[in-house]
Amino acid sequence: MSSRSKTPGVGFEAGRDRGDPGERRLERGAELILDRELLTGPAPLPDFARLLSAQARRGRLRVGAGAAGGLAVAAVIALVVLKDLTPVSYVVAGQAAIRGARIDAAPTGEATEPTHVRFSEGTDVALAPGAELEVVKRTGRGAVLALEHGQAHFSVVHRRGARWSVLTGPFAIEVTGTEFTVDWAPDAGKMVVDLKVGSVRVHGASVGGAVELNAGERLVATVPDHRVTLSPVGEGEGTHETAGKEAASGAGAPRVPPAASLASRVVVDGAPRATGEEPSTKGALAMWSPRQGGRHELPEPRVPTLGETPGDTVARSRQPVPEGPRTDPAPVAPPPTPGIPQSLTLGGGGLFCVSVPAQYTFEQPAAGLSVPSLFTMAFSNPRLDRSHSWCGESSIRVDAVFDDSGRQNFFGRFPNETGQLIVKLDHPTDLTGHTVTMHVFVEGPWDARFSAELAVVDQGRWISNEASRGLSPGRWWTISHHFTEDNAAGIPGSSNPYPYPHGGRSAVTEVDRLALAIRTTGERRSWKGAVFVDDISWR
Amino acid sequence: MAESKQYGGDRARRVGVLDDAALVAALKAREERAYALAWVEFGPMVRRLVSRFFGPGAEPMDLSQEVFVRFFRRIDELRSPDGVRGFLAGICLGVARNEARRLRVRRWVTLTSAGNLPEVGVSGGDVEGREAVRRLYSVLDKASALDRSLFVARYLEKMEVEEVARVHDLSFGTAKRRLARAVGRLNRLMQRDEALAAYLDLPAADVAAPAGGRRQVGTRPGSHGQALDPEDPS
The whole model's pTM is what? Predict the structure, then answer.
């Protein structure tokens, strides 16, 4: 080894002592290199002054390029932000009287085609003749529009962060990107929303907490009787008078084919009773209006006082329909109850109790009620309860405890995420061609949200509707589903898709059980409350 | 360049006039004559380090200039003039590692003509020794830049572990661990070249000093060593 090679120092003595072949090999390699190394000769002196200044120049250039790049990025960001900050603009095409931000479409007879309000980001509002629209507010993300009266067809372009809302009287419709028609008749206090594409959320008045509409659904809300009906487009009550007008629906607008859920309907009734975000109500008449500072007074009282109308007496003493299985005998002579019946003070069926008699009224203790002890365990202790009723004096109450504890069940749900109330029928029943209806009242925290699902069991096969989502506690909900000869079963999200975990079809000719499933769906996952079920019928 | 001539010719006088502390002080004062003095004083060390890092045949001039330019720019980071050589060695190995990584990338994207190491510039008839060095650098070429740098510092520059840690900006413990790992990895790479591994495992007695005072390596016919065939592509 050459004289300049010294022994490598600490850390390797131990390895060398043991004769570490790996390290010895490296030392040999180093010696090989050093022994054959050529000596470095003198080298010309570089011009360091020039090299240093050149590098400084390069550094400045790099800084300049970086700054320019940063400026370019900032400019792009600023453009994007400014674009967001610049309010959308609009032009009006067609015959209309424009006063400030109010657009009055020409009445029928004067107009030959709908009046279009076209916004700069692509959203289009087609006003039917006679409709009046006000552009209340414009932002970079959308606008707040108020439909004063008449019908309008909205085609809102879906954009990230888009915020559009449509106000109609005491109602507000939140839109992100969708196509829908709104018909608002202020005199009748009736709003009809037909949703073609996407989804919207409707707030306000009797709707209370937000109700979410999906494609192909129609929401009919009437202020005077606090009734909100959610049904498939083109079915049932609430078909708005101007729905057939092609003028506002947009020429060539695609019709949405009926979805699997189109046979279902949710009816919301009663003034909002939830506390929290919504302003407190004054009796049953104060209603929340997003547009009028949060309150809206009804023109006339909704709830008749006891004894003033014959309907009330009839409602309490009506006879159940003679057909169909019964679990409770027809009340022969209901005992007189002092005060106002629960069905009225809590927003029950009212005249519905007369016109829609039920097979199950739950006025007496009923047999055949149960809650599952496996898989869906949020409900317990079903019993007759007289604190709430849709019609009459009582209903079935179950205690509800929702949370995400425990292990997920076979269907991917936590046991206490969903509760089921099962009603065993006296004998198998053919429900083909029938619409089964249940009334549900959920008592719980104001921010709880849940879905409700109606199911029938035909020889062990569960057939249910698509769950109605986004429901809120504090009011009666009417869940109904129409069954045909061949029904979709095992719908995704069903509380019990057995025996069709991947979907299937089934008849409902020998139904022996009915079921109601409530599943907690909102941000609040843990809550306790009670669920009341009343008046189950099919017709 | 007038100053270069002024300070480049008389090494004895220069060393006598400026010790490391004075040289560092002059460099911190950005005196141009100090640049020339540093080049003369530390240039051989830097060129040797670069040559050892990249192997014989590599052209150390460009990298040496780059090392010195960085050294001059970062001279204010030097806390004690006593550590100037270690400080410069650290910069030199850092520049060399960067260059090794850059070369590897260029080789991946085939920007070099062949990607082969240049011929080893060893004179004489020491064909096997030259081939062993070529293969050794071929192995180093496959190693990571840090492993290669650790090998150069520890085995070629014979630095203590503390010095190795300092020039690589590592703690003592980390340097020790990384050195141990580098030894293992380099050995695994060497074992892939059986001829090189066998050659390096030869007993010292079988390795003769090369002509001109350096050792000559020979392989005797029938010995347990394996002949290094320059035509063998492995």
Answer: 0.38
